[in-house]
Amino acid sequence: MNPSRIFTLRPVATSLLMVAILLVGLLAYRLLPVSALPEVDYPTIQVTTFYPGASPEVMTGSVTAPLERQFGQMPGLTQMTSTSSGGASTIVLRFNLELALDVAEQQVQAAINAAMSLLPKDLPAPPIYSKVNPADAPIMTLAIVSPTMQVTQLHDLVETRLAQKISQVSGVGLVSMSGGRRPAVRIKINPTVIAGMNLSLTDVQTAVMNTNVNDPKGNFDGKLRSFTIDANDQLKSAEEYRNMIVAWRNGAPIRLRQLAEVSEGPENAYLAAWVNEKPAVIVNIQRQPGANVIEVVDRIQKLMPQLQASLPAAAQLEVLTDRTMTIRASVADVQHELFMAVILVVMVIYLFLRNVPATIIPSVAVPLSLIGTFAVMYLAGFSINNLTLMALTIATGFVVDDAIVMIENIARHIENGASAMEAALEGAREIGFTIISLTFSLIAVLIPLLFMSDVVGRLFREFAITLAVAILISAFISLTLTPMMCARLLKPEDHQRRHGAFMRWVEASFNHLIARYDVALQWVLNRQRLTLQVAVGTLVLTVLLYLVIPKGFFPIEDTGVIQGITEADQSVSFAAMSERQQLVAKAVLEDPNVASLSSFIGIDGTNPTLNTGRIQINLKPLAERSDRVEAVIRHIQTRVADIPGIQLYMQPIQDLTIEDRVSKTRFQFTIEGPDEQELVRVTETLVDQLRQSRKLADVASDLQNQGLQAYVEIDRDTAGRLGVTIDAIDNALYSAYGQRLISTIYTQSNQYRVVLDVASDFSLSPQSLSQLYVPSLSGQQIPMSVLAKVTESTTFLAINHLNQFPSATISFNLASGVSLGDAVDVVRQAQKTIRIPPSIRTHFQGAAQAFESSLTNTVLLIFAAIITMYIVLGVLYESFIHPVTILSTLPSAGVGALLALLISGNDLGIIGIIGIILLIGIVKKNAIMMIDFALEAERTEGKSPREAIYQACLLRFRPILMTTMAALFGAVPLMISSGIGSELRQPLGIAMVGGLMVSQVLTLFTTPVIYLYFDRLAAKLKARTGWNLNAPPDYSGPDS
Description:
Blueprint: H1 5-9, H2 11-31, E1 44-50, H3 56-71, E2 77-85, E3 88-95, H4 101-115, E4 128-130, E5 140-145, H5 151-167, E6 172-178, E7 183-189, H6 191-196, H7 201-211, E8 219-221, E9 226-228, H8 238-242, E10 245-249, E11 252-255, H9 256-259, E12 260-266, E13 272-275, E14 278-279, E15 281-287, H10 293-309, E16 316-322, H11 324-353, H12 356-379, H13 386-415, H14 420-450, H15 454-489, H16 501-525, H17 528-548, E17 561-568, H18 574-589, E18 594-601, E19 612-619, H19 629-640, E20 646-652, E21 667-672, H20 676-691, E22 696-701, E23 707-714, H21 716-721, H22 726-737, E24 740-746, E25 751-758, E26 773-775, E27 781-783, H23 784-787, E28 788-795, E29 798-802, E30 805-814, H24 820-833, E31 841-845, H25 846-877, H26 882-887, H27 890-903, H28 910-941, H29 945-955, H30 957-975, H31 982-1025
Parallel strand pairs: 7-25
Antiparallel strand pairs: 1-3, 1-4, 2-3, 2-29, 5-15, 5-16, 6-15, 7-12, 8-9, 10-11, 13-14, 13-18, 17-19, 17-20, 18-19, 21-30, 21-31, 22-30, 23-28, 24-25, 26-27, 29-30
Helix pairs in contact: 2-12, 2-15, 3-4, 11-12, 11-13, 11-30, 12-13, 12-15, 13-14, 13-15, 13-30, 14-15, 14-25, 14-28, 16-31, 17-27, 17-31, 25-28, 27-28, 27-31, 28-29, 28-31, 29-31, 30-31
């Protein structure tokens, strides 16, 4: 059977079919979205609740726990984490990959509605949910600064004019304002003055609430005219509040200005943000899980002129961070490497064929196969990203194989005197089955990649399918277009034409190489036992290298952005934290590699506690700085190490985010259990143990249990005797020290709060409680010092939960030159040395967790690829033995790849594993080409197995060398890449090049010896048992 015959004889139909593939592919390319990596995000939703003045314990019990109980009943929820801190509760819900984000959103809204009756009645606002992963860094960071306007005015502008517009953009998950100080009217009471007038804080609160109202008032409707009723019932400015009457004493009014300082200020005084060293409002824009980063940013960029125009001239809108800049540059680099790979492959073909028409044929096949792949990518919903482009770059070396094998065979017939058409028909008939077996066995290797689970599986599904489609299209083109072009372009006289000096030297060198290979092959065939020992030794060495090589997960990318978390003493005040944060920012800006930074402090849902802050460091473009991101981090750490009272933890922001919570450093290890005290003991012991290891760096935990607490111990008997209720005491404390929101000012564009607390001089220390008074049921003002005593103790600044249990997360970076596998071993070993009770559960999170599961899957994945290929080859050859001969080439590729990674200082991560799996597909083609011709020679020419394999090795030496060199040069651009995202591409290129070089040398000698060994084995088995392990199918038959 000859599937190529009809295409060879019908050139117009074949040409038009190829033009159709080209046009559809080009159209699809224009429509394909661009992204950093395939979409692999878990459906994640964050729920935030604010309750100003509430302690972490109050937040946990009254807000977080009721919500968690409702969320815990949702189907599809895989993990729930929460952080309850002073005045804020943040719950992160992660659902399984199969659940649609919109479905998860509906479940979350229903759960919030169900929990509302259990939440405190005086919550300023109900819980707010956002379709966003908090661990996913902002895709854009905007800064609004002004030399003349106050930060509160800027915040108001941003909230009313910018934030809403940006939130409306499709794909935006959350627009948060860091350091935002919403305008408010602040009433700062002097507690001794109001007590002297026999007034309480509750009296002031009630007076304000009753004076500032905005209720409906109805209308008049007469015979001819109607009137809407309105009144001056609402107070809108600080001046109006100053003049309001709180009470009457002896017939005279007591106005609020007599009792308090009333001013316009921020709703939350304990928030601050800076751009570089200037106060500012920072707008962080995060995408929804699954949204395309570049498309979302492009939509926001279109809005930018409109947003700037909506601001007054004194306010400037700056783009601090745009994550798409590095993504676009990275994709452009891979596209350049893809173009280079195509050129290199074409050069290799020309050097081997030394014939321009013969070179043109595969030069058309390669781009046509790649462009045709874009059409299938579009239909499958893929994007142009680093991984799909890497697949196409590697495919450059693969797709040319089929065309080379076809051309070389047709050219051999022309050299033997056949006409171009006869050679095309006969050559295509001979080689058709080989191309089909090459293609299907290569695709068989990729099948296990499709069954990889979880995030890693999602990540590489696009890679595997893109590569498989490119190989299939290549096989189709090689069986259709290539023989047709050979019949029209190749001429017998082309092989007799005299070449230039360089080409004659290439030809002489190649002939000399074949002659040397002939001698070496005969030497090897005469020493088969030694060669078999070498083959077995290669297998043993592969296993040893796999055990020895450091294991990793995903390379650290240089995206040009560093996330920093600052941490000061747990008892630090807001003013001291603000000063230290600015010192850190100043030191960071002194680094010549830093372009800008944004930083903020305060509890705002993103930042959990007062003693922590965030810094986002934007580096200069890679071409303009002297170091890559990891070196920059080390330099910055040296600069900030001398700043007293504060630490800066840094990690480079990555395009791949598997975590769903932010940690100080990159890799996370979580400890959870019902006993809080035991949890603290285990966490502190483990942190101390891990800090002693030289393989880990920046070991930290999110355990914050040393905050200062002023514990008010109420004398209930005294309070009862004096007629003071516990509710009155709590109310007095909350009104005095909790930034209590007591009323709302409504305007047409926004709502503003009225905030009640005591003057700053009366809230400096626990001793200030002696100046606070509480009203009794009889209306007397009772000093707090009579009702209670205050003791200082330590408390949690934040309470973390994992799946409703108390938890703590230890995070760490890797020391220089240490692999993630070594670090995981260190943590597991430390875990064994300390006493962990059965009630405490430990496990890695995020990238470290995915790495642990990938360790077990890696070996299974490679075995699955080998078994799949054996089955496919067994079916194709109708033999149990020949597939084993073909698969015997694999250890040599493994040795080469592992050695190359080891020598280059790379660990064996997911990218390296993919390289090895692809090598399994590539190197077996050498054996396939040899065995196909040997079996044909045995069957048709009656040659002995030794003569047949000897002749096959010499005849197929040129196409084997050509296809290997093409695959090798296709991977070279990835190996030598140095631009943005090269960390991702280099391990693949290194593994491919190393594996191809070693396997090329070894398999040319080991394959014929193993073929003969198994042939003798099969013959002996047949003689003893009558079983024929080689029952080759009959491919003879009339051409169609």
